Amino acid sequence: MNSFSYTRAQEVDTAVREVTQDKAAKFIAGGTNILDLMKENVERPDRLVDITRLPLQQVESNPEGGLRLGALVSNADTAYHPEVIERYPLLSKTILAGASAQLRNMATDGGNLFQRTRCYYFYDTATPCNKREPGSGCSAINGYNRIHAILGTSEQCIATHPSDMCVALAALDAVVNVKGPEGERQIKFEDFHRLPGNEPQYDNTVKTGEIVTSIDLPAEGFAKNYTYLKLRDRASYAFALVSVAVGLDLDGDTVREARVALGGVAHKPWRKPEAEALLKGQKATKENFRKVADALLQGAKGFGSNTFKIELAHRAIVRALVMATEMKKK
Amino acid sequence: MSSKVLTEPIGDVAVGLPPLQRVTLTINGAEKQLEVAPWTSLLDLLREYLDLTGTKKGCDHGQCGACTVLVDGKRINSCLTLAVMKDGCEITTVEGLSKGDQLHPVQEAFIEHDAFQCGYCTPGQICSAVGLINEGHAKTTDDIRELMSGNICRCGAYPGIVAAVEQALKVCQPNQ
Amino acid sequence: MTATTYVGKPTSRVDGRAKVTGEAKYAAEFNTPGLTYGYVLSSAIAKGKIKKIDASDALSLDGVLQIFTHENAPRPAYFDRKFKDDDSVAGSPFKPLYDAEIKFSQQPIGLVVADSFEVARYAASLVKVEYEAEQPDTNLRRKPKGHKAPKGKTGFVPPKDRGNADKAFKNAEVQFEAEYFHMPEHHNPMEMFASTVIMEEDGKLKIYDKTQGAFNSQTYVTKVFGLSKEEARVINPYIGGGFGSGLRPQYQLYLAVMAALELKRSVRVVLTRQQMFSFGHRPGTLQTVALGAAQDGTLQSIKHEALAETSRFEEYTETVVNWSGMLYHCDNVKLGYYLRNLDLYTPLDMRAPGAATGIIATETALDELSYKLNIDPLELRLINYAEENEFEGKPFSSKALRECYHQGAEKFGWARRKPQPRSTREGTKLIGWGVATGMWDAQQQKAAAKANLSIDGKLVVGSGTADIGTGTYTAMTMIAAETLGLPLEDVTFKLGDTTLPQAPLQGGSWTVSSVGTAVQEACEAVGKKLLKMAKKMKNSPLSGASFEDVEFVEGKVQLKGDYASGVSIIEAMRQGEVNFIEEETTALPNFLKQMKYARNSHSAVFVEVEVDEDLGQICVRRVVSAIAGGRVISPKTARSQILGGVVWGISMALHEESVLDHNLGRFMNHNLAEYHVAVNADIHDIEVIFVEEHDDIVNPLGAKGLGEIGIVGVAAAVGNAIYHATGKRVRDFPITLDKLL
């Protein structure tokens, strides 16, 4: 860990200013990821701006009839919030499938969006990694890539986004509110994270100095038919190999609307509206679900140790859709 | 065959030490005014500066739970927490759970059910269990298993840990 | 049963309070004024040379005292023998910071010493290292050819054949042959390796070391650094898990002592979790098993061959294949054990070394054979039950394995097993049952103990053994208290200090048998003196009694079973005009008695798994482990030992693998997030059955040791249950979900 200075911001504007002025400064909130990375010398900020005391701690209604999650609400408080449980049980379930109780108490909703990949090579400064050191090469492509991406990869990077929560937020069409030196703006969740392309060092589209202030959940929460299916190498406290967040709006056996987002397979939560559209007005059957899986995984490519993910994801999508469908019957 | 590898030195960051900062922490009920460097984790502060070595370092990366302490009653990983960030907070470590000679019911239950072997993960397990009881979300045995999964026990004392937490849940009220 | 009968009675851990309150201190927790901190620099490459190290930026930092590298570090000893320790293998031990050569990834290449941990860690990140790298070879499977393992370490007996296994296999009615592989694993005790070396005013060193043998560390330090034993006291009252990783002194000990002597300061060196992957590990092995049997299930031929990895500088051996010559009756056995040198650190004994891995292959192959024969796998094991140890050609001192099979099967409900694979289903879950046998050695080593009984009735017993979580404190306290008939709370057992009588390394499941015997003998020696004094008392009811005639119960010495004859031991000491009685004894195994017998512990493990048919997710729902491990001294801690072993077995079967990137020669999942050990949610019902054996051959206590037997057989039983559930045989461990798709 390098040497850095520490300041605590009391207002959003001050925080934004401090990080805008200092290129090597970073925000810190829950700290669960940045401190981990700093101890590995992967992140080396020269200043940390503590934003934990900013007034972004509320869960409240938003103008669209949905819910607004303050950026500094902890993952645990979000998951156990009565309104989240009632209206967005998919989000609650997804958060609780991630990390550990301790980490969920620390990690914030805003911070969760900024989790960096678990790629072994990204974490190990002894090895080349384009995400950590652009131009140094990707060790994972021809190396050990069990946890790596099968979709949206580039020749530069095959890392995955490790968050669970973000998979649910993607499925729910959440909107991220940010504030920066140039004022406030909204980022649709699908635009928040990016694919690696030729600039794998950038995980998302947030600009320097911008701070996430809140996350908006739209009114529709798919509270009746949903599931989060997470497949991993042990029963708990492990990152997803493949995960699937599903929200269904059903009319009897017919699908009015479907949302399917995948985790663990790409540099961002993976969604494909045209795949979901295949279910619109169709019966909720395994056969139709398989078509969705085919479409979602079109172009999937394995790199050796992660090739199994293609088949696993296919089966997981079908299973998750079945699970979500069967909820109403209970 | 031969090639060159150069480990990446920290390039553009100025070499120097960070200044100390003043924080006030209430640790196991006692208020302490301390001068701490920003890079000192709460865990290292406890172990290396305050001689409170009950809280353990098992990975230093939030991957094992040995460093679990309670901050304002909530369980967290002290290894991923900067001490300066907890200014004004109440910290409870394993050393602060018993009242004099009277062990906390979770501690009693751990002994009774032999919920440990080497003892290294134990303080973290116990603080985590106290946090779990405070949270009030564990209703079934499987809930306990899941909600205690952030604490790795390499000796494999999980059956005893689950039995101990079940017993403690019965006798403890939240926030005791 | 008297109030001071403890052996066999469930007793809470005597060190429990210290452990639940945080009072128990581990190697990195002894603080001292002026302590400095060492942070280890690790090699980025696996093979090659260091060309240049530039530590100037790091050295310029305030608070940095010194940066040791091969360029400036002392070389206190030259000969390999100086670096050999009690668990050394053949070859040349690694010597830290001796030269520019890199032999394995994460090799320690420097030590930064600073006045705080944070400064040392920061300074380490400023050191620039330039290497000349060569392509490492770390892939055991790339070239599956090895050389014969040399006879080296104590305990390893090169495998020997009997009969003609090739011919018998060829002629067998039913033949089965397969290849098995399992990945390397790292011990990963929760406590990271640490040494705190306290430089005392007189220049002597007080060394708090994470080790499974204080004397081993002391001998190493004295030999390497030319110190006397008085100058290097090693202390390890608590050890946060060992599992074998602490059987050899690790490099943090060398570095901390080196720095302390050079700087004349107290130094603490703690490895990071990442660096916990930089030294010994359980070696991966590639094994083939061929079994020939008659149609009735009688084994006619067993062939078992293993190829294991070792480093380029040492020849690590463990007993992998010999078990196949001992587990079952068979006249024709052919065994082979080979090593291949790779660019890795030398492997290191890890819980039931060799047995945990070799028996995976044997017990899986036997299961496969059972389906081929259409014989129940438990029945097949009973058909081929070995009445004597045919590998050693000796009868067993005791063997209650048959009872383990029966009691385990009864408890598990094995009789209800449906023979066909894929015959039980609950929704999308397939349910399967598996069984396997386990075996380990019952060994005894030379050990010494001292007992001191004072006039206030308090007994202090000491031996320089360790308690890595095994329950040594508790078992020894129980043995001592019972031997002298004292209340448990009046007995203190001390361990983990080289000023105590010498004890062997804590490993091999021999601590209770070795140290326990010494403790018993030391207490008996005290008892003999007590009896002498009691007999001299006026009108002593014991006059004329020999030591064999009396017993010590509830603070008294009395004629066996005759409460009225009791004489208070405090009174006896008072009358004998002594304030204390102290006796030290060294207990040696009775070789003459023991050598006629094979001495082993056994187990039968029954497992129920549930496997998701589509997704491959596996859950071990139920385990019954029936153990024949001699006499159980401390049932509560013994049960925990077996539970822990079973958890290890599950973890080995399903989760654990240290994965190498062969391009880099580096273990890439070197942390606890990606090296998966079982978590609480992975573990469900585990039932432990002890089938007691009365065995006065293994040692006077009759205990066989329980540290390892609990893990052996579990991984195979899990794999066998997975096959029974799914009809899919996985011969590549761990069995992760992708292998079931």
Automatic annotation (TrEMBL), chain A:
Pfam families xrefs: CO_deh_flav_C, FAD_binding_5
Domain of life: Bacteria
The keyword Flavoprotein belongs to this UniProt entry's keyword annotation: yes
Range of residues in the leader sequence: none
PROSITE patterns the UniProt entry points to: FAD_PCMH (PS51387)
Lipid metabolism as UniProt keyword: no
Domain FAD-binding PCMH-type: 1-222
Keyword terms: FAD, Flavoprotein
Gene3D superfamilies: 3.30.465.10, CO dehydrogenase flavoprotein, C-terminal domain, Uridine Diphospho-n-acetylenolpyruvylglucosamine Reductase, domain 2
Protein name: FAD-binding molybdopterin dehydrogenase
Organism: Hymenobacter crusticola
MF GO annotations: FAD binding; oxidoreductase activity
From TrEMBL, chain C:
SMART domains: Ald_Xan_dh_C
Any one GO molecular-function label of the UniProt entry: oxidoreductase activity
Highest taxon of the lineage: Bacteria
Compositionally biased region (Basic residues): 141-151
Chain intervals for the UniProt region annotation (Disordered): 139-164
All copies of domain Aldehyde oxidase/xanthine dehydrogenase a/b hammerhead, residue ranges: 21-135
PANTHER family: DEHYDROGENASE, XANTHINE DEHYDROGENASE
Record-given protein name: Aldehyde oxidase
Species whose genome carries this gene: Hymenobacter crusticola
